[in-house]
Amino acid sequence: MTPDRPGAQDAERPGHTHCPYCALQCAMSVTPTTGGVAEVTPEWFPTNRGGLCRKGWTAGDLLGHPDRLTTPLIRRDGRLQPCDWDTALDRVVDGIRRAQAAGGPDGVAVFGGGGLTNEKAYQLGKFTRLALGSRLIDYNGRWCMSSAAAAANRSFGLDRGLPFPVTDLSGARAVLLIGANPADTMPPFLQHLGTAAAAGGLIVADPRLSATARRALDGGGVHLRLRPGTDAALALGLLHLVVVTGAVDTRYLAARTTGFEDAWAHAAAWLPERTERVTGVSVALLERAVRLLADARDAGAGSYILTARGAEQHADGTSVVGAVIALALALGLPGRPRTGYGTLTGQGNGQGGREHGQKADQLPGYRMITDPDARTHVAAVWDVEPEQIPGPGLSAFELLDSLGQPGGPTAMLLHASNPVVSAPDADRVAERLRALDTLVVADFVLSETAALADVVLPVPQWAEEEGTLTNLEGRVLRRRRSITPPAGARDELWIWHELARRLDRGPERFPTDPRAVFDELARASAGGKADYSAVDWDRLDAGEVLHWPCGADSPAGTPRLFLDRFATPDGRARFMIDAPRTPAEPTDAAFPLLATTGRLLAHYQSGAQTRRVGELAAAEPRMWVQVHPVVARAAGLTDGAAARVVSRRGSVEAEVRCDEDMRTDTLFLPFHFAGTGRANLLTLPELDPHSRMPEFKVCAVRLEAAA
């Protein structure tokens, strides 16, 4: 299949499913083969155009992997041992009852994940609030999209990762990526940047010369190699240049925005020379970036700005993204054809996973749990009184840090997440999980977190379940069962129904049929920001292309948002800028370097899945640290040497990889590895005041030889 076949339809055919990894949600089909292995075949779809990355091609390898969990496990005499389902669920119920007898409804906490289907994300939130009566639920997407979400809600009144179809990028001649490396994280996405790259209009802001930055330079584009933690300063410096060079779109500002004067009061101080001094990016490159974006806009040739985790995973991530949105607004990009601002969602259902109620502060339809009208609407769908719905809980890290503490939860149900590897200050989080009386983990492999559990519940994998997901552009997709799950695995919807039955908490409220759950989700979302009320499985199975909001006012869906007005009360976008701050943890003589973390082509998230795939594990088998040769020599190290990276919280063992393109003040560590190779042993849990995002992307460290 050719990437640009004439007349290609956006619609997916029955039998298609989607990759289990990132939010690009590349289409594929899965065919069972002998020996428990499944064959993956790429299918044409707008996001991937018939392509798959290395992770997608090998996705079938896990379906029959020998590490696959096929029976429940309970801890006896300090060891996890197989048991039957009745024994496992009885143990879970006993733990819930003990915890709630001691601590009330909030004696039990729940932690979800951005890999759950829409149906499961919805049901998990409902189960927590009604069956358990607990307010304590959050999920790992808090560490992925929350800063971008908070900033978009503040400025636009609505958060959808890409407010336009990803294919809109394909013709753009200028694209600025801030903190994004899709060449490694979602390689098929690069097809949509081809025009910009060939035109010399691909601009990448990243402390490293990443594979995406190299692609930009190869086409004559720009690499803005900023100092870690200076993203907001970079955005304000670019905004300053937009204004003083006359690139600002004054008619757009007057017609469609509010608050520009306050924004300029911040940006006016960010003279090009000051921006260069703080960020390390030359004035010439700053000026060129602005010129490329403005020229493409003026020529009607497509001009876009996109952010990702590199910009967002900071203790001021909301402010960083707010400054980037301000830059986009000054250029007049959001809410117009062939221009725009968006953010690249990470996890497979990172978009849908945050819309339906597994966040501490939200109800289905992207409603806020503190909104009386939202509570009344959802309560009516759930057939309860509004006061029966608990109030807001704690954000992800705060929730994990409260476990086993005085007055904190003593039991946790954890789904589709591996915080022992993925959480900041990871040893501290592991200690809190060990302090629980009852830790229940539902997974299909024994992750590092599952290995600490008192009860492990085996669940189906992606190709073994039915449901829906929402990709990075807000399009609702069908996940179709291609493989029969192992006899011992049980679907999460069944697990929650059984727990509700055993607890005598209204099991009829928790159906096991995902189609029935989706129909209720659609009703619960009606009238909300993320309105799915006109979506149903029959429409999706018939091949209709449905982007939310898709409700009574927009039954055909909304592929492009904000074309007429923004989702604010007055319809105008808001400039929301705070003063830039320095990283939460400064360097000093003991910790003179800055560490930043990121992803690799061969691995995904905590690596619990991809480290078990032979081809991927062989490509990247162990932890490493990327450093400039000068930095390595100063520590008495050479390429390939065994090193320790030490922060104020812990240390990581890693192999040295010298790279002359690295900044001499910066180290890079991938975060997919386990044990003493966990990059998040170093990171600090300083939290953004708006999004509660931790400071993942920069911490003070030193480099030394391993003992």
UniProtKB/TrEMBL annotation:
GO terms for biological process: respiratory electron transport chain. Keywords: 4Fe-4S, Iron, Iron-sulfur, Metal-binding. The keyword Phosphoprotein does not apply. This is Nitrite reductase. GO terms for molecular function: 4 iron, 4 sulfur cluster binding; metal ion binding; molybdopterin cofactor binding; NADH dehydrogenase activity. InterPro entries: Asp_de-COase-like_dom_sf, MoPterin_dinucl-bd_dom, Mopterin_OxRdtase, Mopterin_OxRdtase_4Fe-4S_dom, Prok_molybdopt-oxidoreductase. SUPFAM superfamilies: ADC-like (SSF50692), Formate dehydrogenase/DMSO reductase, domains 1-3 (SSF53706). Residues 12-67 form the 4Fe-4S Mo/W bis-MGD-type domain. It comes from the Bacteria. The keyword Iron applies. GO terms for cellular component: membrane.
